[in-house]
Design a protein that fits this description.
Layout lengths: L21 H4 L16 E7 L9 E8 L7 E2 L2 E2 L1 E4 L8 E6 L2 E6 H10 L6 E4 L1 H4 L5 H9 L1 H7 L3 E6 L11 H16 L8 H8 L3 H12 L8 H7 L4 E5 L2 E4 H12 L7 H7 L1 H15 L4 H6 L1 H11 L10 H4 L23 H14 L3 H6 L30 H7 L1 H5 L9 E2 L6 E15 L13 H20 L11 H13 L8 H10 L11 H15 L8 E4 L4 E4 L10 E5 L6 E7 L4 E9 L8 H6 L6 E5 L1
Parallel strand pairs: 2-6, 5-8, 5-9, 9-10, 18-19
Antiparallel strand pairs: 1-2, 1-8, 3-4, 6-7, 10-11, 12-13, 13-14, 13-16, 13-19, 14-15, 15-18, 16-17, 17-18
């Protein structure tokens, strides 16, 4: 079942093949660009002409000599690079470019106005103005060398936007900028040896809640969720974050985030959560990953491993042009991708082709589990069921946060440091079908737990929220108890309930975890939950179960097979009765397949899943012992 997309998420119709730049292509902009040579020897730069605050923005654009070894200068011209969010490309403001009218997004016009100097020119690289958006060949060429452009700039300027937007705190613009800037600098100066220093900084403002609101508004600016910014900030020699009329160095901002992060484990955890500092922390982790020195041996280990790590790390970042889900992170790969045709930047390719080719590249590189575990129901038209666009959402009927258990088993061979059994794929002529070796168990799904109604829960008290979770989990358990197939392996109610818990929580028999304890606390007490005076316990319980199962238990679909095996899906998806369990050679995770033509072993891929008895199976050893026979399985 396909669902309508929300803003900033991939739509599931073929209109997705139309580039994001289409609004700019169809605009009235008529500037004549001098062509850029294909050898990368020139760069196009915008010059922001001097002017006073309220005058119309005037710029010029021209080509300059470029060498990626010049580090901040192109010939005699130093330049800066702008990192920002386009905004709605259909809503624009006028500027002047090379003496001609030129329309840019509202956010870009505000950035140009803020960056304009009163007494001298400023040379800046800006994607929307320095790339001829009507020329697909040039767009492909320039996107391929974005890494060189940003790493060669004298500095990267990050534009977060204007001081206040509609609905923001009701104080003047200057006060928002001033207070936020002062607060961030005070946090940056907090002692690293004092884990509670950030809490005292906020307390000294005289209004902790307003200080938290300022931080929240700052860190939830769209820039922190945009995928392109990861390579733009990671490759920068130095960077300045401009918010309204003031700037703060990237290093200073990270010091402020570090101070807030130190509150995670103490009595001020709520400050870390409410501040929004986690948004910058995610960016920092990608920044640190790129900056961390690695040995040559690690670089040679596997480009596939490096790309898989990046794809997983960036699944929740946003991009309006879906091709940028891949293109926006290629500059972060340390290995050489220049000869990889499957990953070549090409905006003329359909979205489905791009992610099909990415999936093929990863599977050929031994990352079958990574690809299949990243498949979600929220997909793209034309994309084979076994391929993934590496996108994810944390809420709703297509929520797709994998459990720690599946993530660990997905990387089982890597963690154990042992060689993964090879399973080279065979592709059909059109690359839409893939044949790989595995074994399909003659044990179809006989029961699937229901989805829950996703009503609003924002106004629930902790106590009501805990009761709602118990109602949902109890409903699943009672339905399980009514199934005859549930009694095939587990004969007593206690055995069935314990196995059901392991299936839902993605744990193994014998595991003793805090999550399991919280589950038991909810399910094993027919009387009231802990009293309201034990709010800290209820908060931990609700937070833990919400984080692992979803607000409406929507990260899982529990099921039972005909033989009595209990399991649950890795993501929320539409599981059918008669779907089959499967294990592939070289993968420690089981999967669900939907039969299309069983005689021809032709199946549609559904999802990864957790079934304790089928984890870490050695198919080749099982074949030697006569337990099964490895088959060729074709996925469409």
């Amino acid at each position: 079942m396909r669902r309508e997309h929300k803003q900033n998420e991939f739509p599931t119709t073929r209109v997705q093949d139309e580039p994001y730049f289409v609004a700019m292509e169809k605009s009235a902009n008529t500037v004549n660009y001098d062509p850029l040579p294909s050898d990368g020897s020139m760069i196009r730069l915008v010059t922001i002409l001097p002017g006073v605050k309220h005058k119309k923005v005037k710029c010029t654009v021209a080509n300059y000599p470029f060498s990626k070894f010049s580090k901040g200068a192109t010939g005699s011209v130093e330049y800066e690079a702008l990192s920002y969010v386009w905004g709605d490309a259909s809503i624009t403001n006028p500027i002047t470019l090379n003496g001609q009218p030129f329309r840019v997004t509202i956010n870009l016009e505000a950035a140009l106005r803020a960056l304009r100097l009163q007494d001298k020119r400023r040379h800046v690289w800006i994607d929307a103005m320095c790339i001829n958006q009507t020329n697909l060949q040039e767009r492909n060429q320039e996107v391929r060398r974005m890494g060189d452009i940003y790493s060669n700039a004298r500095q990267v300027i990050v534009w977060l936007g204007r001081e206040v937007e509609p609905g923001d705190v009701h104080i003047s613009d200057d006060r928002v900028t001033q207070k936020t800037h002062s607060l961030l600098n005070s946090l940056a100066d907090a002692s690293p040896q004092d884990p509670d220093a950030a809490a005292r900084v906020l307390d000294r403002t005289g209004n902790t809640m307003q200080a938290l609101l300022l931080l929240h508004k700052f860190f939830y600016r769209p820039w922190f969720q945009r995928i392109w910014i990861l390579q733009e900030i990671a490759l920068a020699r130095t960077a300045t974050i401009v918010f309204g009329g003031r700037g703060i160095g990237w290093d200073r901002l990270l010091q402020a985030v570090d101070a807030l992060r130190r509150l995670q484990l103490g009595s001020h955890t709520h400050i870390w959560r409410l501040s929004g500092g986690g948004e910058a922390d995610r960016v920092q982790r990608c920044w640190m990953r790129r900056r961390t020195a690695t040995s040559q041996g690690e670089l040679e280990q596997s480009i596939h491993f490096e790309l898989a790590d990046l794809l997983w790390q960036t699944r929740f970042y946003k991009c309006t042009e879906p091709r940028d889900r891949l293109y926006g992170i290629l500059g972060l790969v340390k290995g050489d991708l220049s000869g990889e045709k499957l990953l070549e930047v090409d905006y003329t390719k359909s979205v489905a082709e791009i992610f099909r080719d990415l999936s093929i590249f990863m599977i050929k590189g031994g990352k079958l589990s990574h690809v299949l575990c990243a498949v979600t129901e929220d997909t793209i038209d034309g994309l084979p069921s076994w391929a993934t666009a590496w996108i994810a959402k944390l809420e709703g009927t297509t929520a797709s946060k994998l459990s720690n258990g599946i993530v660990m088993h997905m990387q089982s061979y890597e963690f154990k440091g042992i060689e993964q059994p090879p399973n080279p794929p065979r592709l059909s002529v059109d690359s839409q079908r893939i044949t790989i070796k595995g074994f399909i168990f003659d044990d179809s799904i006989r029961h699937v737990s229901k989805h829950f109604n996703q009503g609003a829960t924002t106004d629930y008290t902790l106590d009501r929220r805990a009761k709602l979770i118990r109602t949902q989990l109890t409903g699943w358990q009672e339905d399980m108890e009514c199934q005859r197939c549930a009694q095939e392996i587990f004969k007593t109610r206690a055995e069935r309930c314990e196995a059901w818990k392991h299936a839902i929580l993605h744990e193994l028999p014998g595991d003793k975890t805090e999550l399991g304890q919280h589950y038991d606390l909810l399910m094993n007490h027919e009387d009231e939950l802990p009293s309201a005076t034990e709010s800290a316990l209820i908060l931990r319980l609700v937070t833990d179960l919400d984080a692992n199962l979803g607000l409406h238990c929507d990260f899982r679909r529990p099921f039972i097979t005909r033989s009595g095996l209990m399991g649950s899906t890795g993501t929320s998806c539409d599981v059918h009765l008669e779907d089959k369990l499967c294990v592939f050679v070289g993968s420690a995770v089981p999967y669900l397949l939907r039969p299309i033509d069983e005689a021809k072993r032709l199946y549609r891929f559904v999802t990864c899943c957790w079934v304790p008895g089928l984890l870490d199976l050695d198919l080749e050893e099982g074949q030697k012992r006569g337990l099964w026979k490895i088959q060729d399985i074709t996925l469409v």
